Structure prediction request, 144 residues.
Amino acid sequence: MNKKDLFDKFMAFTASVHRVTHELTKDVKLELNTVTPVQYSILEYIAVSQPVTPSQVSDCQHMSMPNTSRELKKLSEKNLIEKFSDTKDRRKQYIRLSKDGEIMMNKAFKCTEIQFLNRIQNRSEEDLEDINRALDTLHTKLFY
Prediction:
């Protein structure tokens, strides 16, 4: 297999993922007008990866540490996240969603789920099985 062609296909695929993700979540972001798009992105990352460190948030969101700290502080002031220390190393801080943050993100994910189900509603059982296998393959072989 030509690895350059594989890379080109991967880049086209990731661009499509970003486009579809935007389509599936754009109504959610408007509904959650209490947070900015950057804050929503941070909350989404925390929701699927928690607990996380500030540096992990910074790295994943492509933000400087000062900007990350500022946004995390705002989210904490809105009672959407909470910080806690590592039990073995008190200097190490972790972040997780607070109860309010969990409620907000559960609502957001439910809205996204509805959009996703609408998108796949006319797919055959065979198509759904293919999609499921493809997602499993990508998850175990590329996005581990």
Remarks:
- The longest strand covers residues 81-85.
- Residues 6 and 126 are 25 Å apart (CA to CA).
